[in-house]
């Protein structure tokens, strides 16, 4: 009997304790609700305080820590539940108070716990990476100390919001502003520093796009300029306390038309522009800051920083250097360029000859900008012919355009400016050596945070003057149609119309053919169609660049370009097919990467002189006829992102040096990789599905994806592999 009574008593005690607790909830229900309301009010107050603190910190480029973000998520969740409990309280009946009291108490304790967790002794915020500007690359800044300090004080003070830095070309305005920009990075006054290059071919929509891009935002190309201006104003208004630097402004414009806010004491913004024209600064109502020429001492210090102070122990050499620098009249660009071309020259006789030559270039020149031109021409003429040609080619790009180093060296090879050395690797090495030499001579400049170079405006002006009868350059000029017929001279050798808005080409002008034209650059246009007769005017064309256009097809007349060596159609996503290419026997480079072609061009197998073939990222291309690739025995570069029926074809390509491709299985990789020593750049995927292939030639990579390895399977990896990746693979026991 006792065995039965014991458990029953335990149950009764348990029920009693539960009942007692529920009775407590009912008797003290009002107290529990008051406690609930207080906990809710405390949590909301703490949340509001933190939100205000974060808002204040946001103006100084700060963002909430991840733990703070998670805390806010918890607060939102608990307060949402509290609202649900409140609704039940308002609808509750007396008989259900015991159950409701328990719910109220649980919600109260949960809010108190979250409130206690909101104790961030290390602070609420960290720096926002998106607002952290980076140092702009600039040479060691010499001279112009007073000007730099004047600009800096205007920016740090409240009295001046619009600052116009002006001075002649080559005087160092951009370098000065880069130095001021980098100095501002060390201060907390401004949340964001925005740098935009404007250039001579001013375009409001492009300026709007460039400013929005610096804010990591986009503007619709389909909208009216006024609407875009309104949206840009809102973007800038949301930044608060920024400095907008507009470099290389050539003419005055309305800030309102662009969407640039007028700086005020309240918004804490500043606007700086650099220009050659005092009139631009004056007409736009900016505070004028003139950049003067360097003093002799400043010019000499700048010269020594470039030419190397290790050459100074010789007193004779030092006096000759001073003579050379004096001829530059304190113009920084002239000083730097002269130092670049004389670097490493320690023979006094070489300096004497150089000074005599320099004086010949600038004799009887009184205009300061013309004198800069004379100094630049002096440096240019001392280059070897191949270096000169490579420099002049850079002028085919738009003004102030950042040119990728790998791209420009590839262009030089396409043009035949680099001697054929038997191997692509050797030619690339030669190209990069020339590029380095032009940089060292200060005729090309490095671009901030990108593997790019660009030409100073005055260097480009010199190049265009030298080539004025041979080159027609209208790159980046916002053209919507071809230049006028009178611009097309019969002596033209190169025409650059890249980066424009040309959508149609009319039936070509009635003038004679252009027998000397070898290079035609039409890339980055909205071009949709080319007339059948167009190519008949260029019988000796060698380089044709139609990349990143909207062409759907090419006219059959392209087959008449029998001297064509380079045909570039990269990024032509609308391109569906090509005419027969069998007559283009001189073709050495064919780039169809990222195009829309659905089948291999007819006659491809006849192009036995091809060195470069890019069929990468051609998602509509399903197959390549067997035997096609094996006939292209001179290929040095091949990118092909579709499955090959047989890897044996690639074994025939003994000269292949760069390869991007996909193999269906390990056996195909082994067939390709065995005894292949010439390969020096490659990106290879071994996978059953190619959809995930993202090739890169930055490192020599082999990637296995979804591969099952059997016991004893042999794997042959290409010579020189730098990176091996195994993703979702099975059966791997060890890697030797």
From TrEMBL:
Q: Which Gene3D superfamilies match?
A: Helical domain of apoptotic protease-activating factors (1.10.8.430), P-loop containing nucleotide triphosphate hydrolases (3.40.50.300), Ribonuclease Inhibitor (3.80.10.10), Winged helix-like DNA-binding domain superfamily/Winged helix DNA-binding domain (1.10.10.10)
Q: Does the keyword Transit peptide apply?
A: no
Q: Give one GO term, molecular function aspect.
A: ADP binding
Does the entry feature the keyword Glycosyltransferase, yes or no?
no
Residue ranges occupied by any NB-ARC domain in the UniProt entry: 149-309
- TM stretches of this protein: none
Alphabetical keyword list:
ATP-binding, Leucine-rich repeat, Nucleotide-binding, Plant defense, Repeat
Q: What are the GO BP annotations of this UniProt entry?
A: defense response
The record's InterPro entries line, in alphabetical order, gives: Apaf_helical, Leu-rich_rpt, Leu-rich_rpt_typical-subtyp, LRR_dom_sf, NB-ARC, P-loop_NTPase, Plant_NBS-LRR, WH-like_DNA-bd_sf
Q: What is this protein called?
A: NB-ARC domain-containing protein
Source species, please?
Gossypium harknessii
């Amino acid at each position: 009997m006792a065995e039965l009574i014991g458990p029953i008593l335990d149950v009764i005690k348990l029920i009693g304790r539960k009942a007692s607790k529920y009775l407590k909830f009912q008797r003290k229900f009002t107290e529990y609700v008051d406690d609930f309301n207080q906990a809710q009010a405390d949590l909301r107050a703490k949340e509001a305080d933190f939100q205000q603190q974060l808002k204040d910190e946001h103006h100084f480029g700060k963002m909430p820590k991840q733990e703070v973000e998670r805390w806010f998520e918890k607060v939102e969740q608990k307060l949402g539940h509290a609202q649900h409990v409140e609704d039940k309280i308002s609808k509750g009946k007396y008989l259900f108070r015991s159950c409701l009291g328990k719910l109220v108490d649980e919600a109260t304790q949960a809010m108190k716990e979250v409130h206690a967790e909101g104790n961030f002794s290390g602070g609420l915020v960290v720096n926002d990476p998106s607002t952290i500007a980076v140092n702009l690359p600039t040479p060691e800044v010499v001279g112009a100390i007073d000007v730099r300090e004047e600009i800096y004080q205007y920016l740090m003070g409240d009295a001046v919001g619009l600052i116009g830095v002006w001075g002649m070309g080559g005087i160092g305005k951009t370098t000065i502003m880069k130095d001021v920009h980098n100095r501002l990075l060390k201060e907390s006054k401004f949340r964001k520093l925005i740098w935009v290059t404007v250039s001579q071919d001013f375009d409001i929509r492009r300026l709007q796009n460039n400013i929005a891009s610096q804010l990591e935002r986009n503007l619709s190309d389909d909208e009216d300029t006024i609407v875009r201006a309104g949206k840009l104003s809102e973007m800038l208004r949301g930044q608060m306390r920024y400095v907008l630097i507009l470099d290389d402004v050539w003419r005055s414009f309305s800030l309102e038309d662009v969407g640039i806010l007028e700086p005020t004491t309240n918004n804490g913004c500043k606007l700086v522009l650099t220009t050659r024209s005092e009139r631009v600064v004056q007409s736009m109502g900016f505070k004028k800051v003139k950049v003067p020429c360097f003093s002799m001492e400043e010019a000499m210090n700048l010269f020594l920083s470039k030419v190397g102070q290790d050459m100074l122990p010789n007193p004779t050499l030092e006096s000759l250097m001073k003579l050379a620098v004096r001829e530059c009249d304190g113009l920084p660009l002239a000083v730097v360029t002269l130092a670049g071309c004389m670097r490493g020259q320690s023979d006094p006789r070489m300096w004497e000859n150089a000074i005599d030559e320099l004086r010949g270039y600038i004799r009887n020149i009184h205009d300061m900008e013309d004198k800069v031109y004379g100094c630049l021409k002096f440096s240019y003429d001392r280059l070897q012919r191949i270096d000169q040609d490579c420099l002049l080619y850079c002028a085919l790009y738009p003004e102030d355009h950042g040119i990728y180093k790998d791209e420009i060296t590839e262009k030089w090879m396409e043009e035949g400016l680099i001697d054929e050395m038997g191997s692509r690797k050797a030619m690339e090495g030669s190209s990069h050596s020339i590029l380095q030499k032009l940089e060292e001579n200060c005729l090309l400049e490095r671009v901030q945070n990108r593997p790019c170079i660009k030409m100073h405006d005055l260097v480009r002006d010199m190049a265009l003057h030298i080539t004025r009868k041979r080159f027609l350059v209208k790159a980046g000029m916002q053209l919507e149609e071809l230049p006028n017929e009178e611009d097309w001279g019969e002596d033209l050798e190169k025409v650059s119309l890249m980066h424009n808005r040309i959508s149609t080409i009319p039936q070509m002008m009635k003038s004679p053919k252009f027998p000397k034209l070898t290079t035609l650059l039409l890339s980055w246009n909205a071009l949709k169609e080319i007339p059948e007769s167009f190519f008949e005017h260029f019988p000796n064309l060698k380089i044709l660049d139609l990349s990143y256009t909207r062409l759907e097809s090419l006219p059959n007349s392209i087959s008449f370009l029998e001297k064509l060596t380079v045909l570039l159609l990269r990024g032509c996503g609308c391109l569906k097919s090509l005419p027969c290419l069998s007559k283009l026997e001189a073709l050495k480079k064919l780039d169809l990467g990222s195009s829309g072609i659905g089948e291999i061009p007819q006659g491809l197998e006849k192009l036995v002189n091809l060195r470069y073939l890019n069929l990468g990222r051609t998602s509509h291309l399903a197959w390549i006829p067997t035997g096609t690739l094996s006939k292209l025995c001179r290929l040095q570069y091949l990118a092909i992102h579709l499955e090959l029926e047989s890897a044996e074809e690639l074994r025939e390509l003994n000269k292949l040096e760069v390869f991007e491709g996909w193999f269906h299985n390990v056996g195909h990789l082994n067939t390709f990789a065995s005894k292949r020593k010439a390969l020096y750049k490659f990106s290879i995927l071994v996978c059953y599905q190619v959809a995930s292939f993202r090739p890169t030639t930055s490192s020599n990579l082999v990637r296995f994806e979804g591969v099952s390895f059997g016991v004893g399977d042999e794997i042959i990896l290409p010579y020189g592999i730098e990176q091996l990746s195994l993703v979702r693979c099975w059966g791997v026991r060890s890697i030797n």
